Give the backbone structure.
Amino acid sequence: MTGLDREGSMQKGTHNKIAVPAKLIKALPKVELHRHLEGAFRLKTLLELARKRNLTEFPLDDEEAFRRIVQMTEHDEPDFLTFLSKFKADWYSTLEDPKRVAYEAVLDAAKENVFYMEMRFSPEHYARKSGFALEAVIEAILEGARRGADEGGVHLAFLVTLGREKLDANAMKRYIKICQKYKERGIAGIDLAGDELNFPPELFGKVFKGLYERTGFYATIHAGEARGAESVATAIRDLDARRIGHGLRTIEDPAAVELARERKIVLEQCLTSNRLTGTVRSIGKHPFPEYYKQGVRVTLNTDDPQIQQSTLNDDYALAAKHFTFGLEDFRRVNIYSLEGSFQPPEAQKALIKKYTAAFDAAIAGAPPTDKYGKPAKNTLHEKTAKRRERA
Ligand SMILES: [Zn+2]
């Protein structure tokens, strides 16, 4: 890792090759572009909701047994289907439930010192078993999350996730139309997720091609995770993807890598997630450093922190350890994230300015601040931290 990319800019300062200690990683302001609300619940909250509904098919009296059902634990081999099996939609009986989950998820991001987040959620997930109307779900989540963002001091926007195997093209268009009503309240883009293997991107060309011109929404497409580089190239060329969720297998075709680099497509990389789904065998084998070296706009994101029992700080620590990432590398990927955010240019510029000041303050040793300039809530869940120490 040289830290010198093909755009020709040099690392700044002398910090770069000094190993970044965990405490400083924690203090750095971070941009999170790829976090699913469905994977960002609090375990205790889900258990409480399960008890409230008396869902006796779950081990309601045994938190550890419940954990093994909804989180990846040391009992699970890394595997995509095992990972997917942890997403369940049984919990919601009133609209207060998704509202609370969203509120807590943003507060938890604040504790990781997330500066700006585009939190994605699938309205269909919350409506499926509960029978809630889509608009009602969207409103509940926006309200809960916004309250979390105000309390936690996080700049927040939303992406709506459309599941490939759940919705056909017409249903997706209907969803997008509904989302347009919530632009003012922060829905900034659309995410295509789900079973890439059986539902390749070309099936959704009609929904996504020209989406921005029609609706003002940019798209991020999960691609190059279950399928190869052609899936990524199709998402960029034929679905007008501005960002790619994962894009791991882009590396298999130099032309696809070049396409992503040249069009400044942001690859939303999620290291812990990729290991737990078995998409990469180890972090050392992850293509992230190769993309970075080639000037592709790679970024660091969690994906599903609670299902993974990880935080964004953990992913930063992995990058520091396995890719010898230094402070200026972290700064750069966060700027990539902000430049790839689905905000209008003026808002982006203001965020980048503020981010840079916060980053400089963090490396100068100033205590981290939130978007109001108040001390940030940047402590991990004590229990999660302790559990990780024991592991
Ligand atoms: Zn994802």
User: Anything to note?
Assistant: The chain has one domain: 22-390.
